[in-house]
């Protein structure tokens, strides 16, 4: 690997171990075995590097579902829930960022990074859950289910609703509010 790749790998390790706000440029340089100056050279700032590392980590998480793409919700959802345990720190970092979004301490580029990631996630979720055509509304619903489920799981893994429970609840809502 080159310095850029080493920095991304080190930043990802730091991000997952320490979180976004507590990761320093020195932490990343140390974890990557690359000089501190290389961060500025390759990424311009620690924040830009962390944003790229976060984007890469989320893409890796999503890539783990490639073989499931196009299957029924009931078949994919259990694997999504299993992934929460495998990627607990990744979800925790994302919720950390949401909590600090309007604190005035957030890197302005991060909001744009997260907005683009959300757009891509909605598109990917529509495909993952078996729909051939893009549908922004459906993608938003899947994304809200996913984020809500991740939040529930982080607090109480045993409270996670099953795919059948979610489908039954969505049918009830649809019947009561046609």
Structure explained in plain terms:
This protein is an all-alpha fold and 178 residues long. It has nine helices and no strands.
Total of DSSP H or I helical runs spanning 4+ residues: 9
Cα shape:
elongated
Number of extended strands: 0
For the largest beta-sheet, the strand count, sense and barrel status come to: none
Identify the notable features of this structure and list them briefly.
74% helix; single chain; mainly alpha; 178 residues
What's the topology here?
Blueprint: H1 3-18, H2 25-32, H3 36-43, H4 46-63, H5 73-86, H6 88-99, H7 108-128, H8 136-155, H9 163-176
Helix pairs in contact: 1-2, 1-4, 4-7, 7-8
Summarize the structure.
Helix content is about 75%, strand content about 0%.
């Amino acid at each position: 690997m080159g310095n850029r790749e080493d920095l991304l790998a080190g930043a990802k390790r730091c991000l997952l171990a320490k979180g976004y706000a507590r990761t320093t440029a020195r932490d990343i340089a140390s974890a990557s075995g690359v000089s501190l100056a290389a961060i500025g050279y390759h990424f311009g700032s620690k924040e830009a590097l962390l944003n790229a590392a976060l984007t890469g980590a989320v893409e890796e998480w999503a890539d783990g579902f490639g073989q499931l793409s196009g299957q029924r919700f009931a078949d994919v959802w259990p694997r999504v829930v299993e992934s929460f345990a495998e990627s607990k720190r990744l979800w925790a970092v994302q919720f950390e960022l949401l909590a600090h979004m309007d604190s005035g301490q957030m890197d302005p580029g991060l909001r744009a990074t997260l907005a683009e990631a959300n757009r891509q996630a909605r598109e990917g979720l529509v495909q993952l859950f078996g729909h051939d055509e893009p549908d922004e509304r459906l993608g938003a619903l899947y994304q809200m289910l996913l984020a809500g489920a991740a939040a529930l799981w982080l607090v109480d893994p045993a409270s996670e609703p099953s795919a059948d429970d979610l489908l039954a609840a969505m049918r009830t809502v649809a019947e009561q509010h046609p």
